[in-house]
Amino acid sequence: MKAPDFSLPDQHGTIHTLLEHQGTWRIVYFYPKDDTPGCTKEACGFRDAYDAFAKAGIVVFGISKDSVASHKKFAEKYSLPFPLLSDETTRTIQAYGAWGKKKFMGREFLGIIRKTYLIDPNGDIVKEYEGMDVDSHAEEILRDIKALSGQ
User: Fold this and answer.
1) CA angle at residue 39 from 34 to 40, to 5 degrees?
2) Superfamily of domain 9-13+21-149
3) 78, 44 contact by CB (below 8 A)
């Protein structure tokens, strides 16, 4: 399946599209909220593995519906070296199937479902991750890319 393109601002207001990175491996991960425990662990995992991703030419994008200003504070607080994209309309989040019913403390509501997509250089989604362990997620993706790309 082809990955839906997007045009979204990062924590500095710079617009990013998926297509501008055609020809490279891309990781697009969706997370519920800046500076919450699970989302912080996941983002810091990507931060800690970022040099390995960059060395392999892999682009990482984090996406939530938080504002550009919220992303800026979150990225600065944890020294996140990759773009955090703001999708306040949730159009991109919905296009990737990362929006749906959630339960918390017995209450049902609509929100972002934690999902990650591994996109190959041709723009195809080759793996979808859901229900992952946020502590080891980045390393799992690195292993999968190596296996899929023959590195």
Assistant:
1) 85
2) Glutaredoxin (3.40.30.10)
3) yes
- Please give the C-alpha separations between residue 31 and each of 41, 57, 71, 108, in angstroms, as whole numbers: 11, 23, 12, 18
22-51: per-residue pLDDT in tens? 999 999 999 999 999 999 999 999 999 999
44 included as an active-site residue: no
* In the chain, domain spans: 9-13+21-149
Q: Is residue 59 a contact partner of residue 92, using CB atoms and an 8 Å limit?
A: no
Give per-residue pLDDT as tens, 52-90: 999 988 999 999 999 999 999 999 999 999 999 999 999
- Which residue among 18, 39, 58, 138 is the active-site one? 39
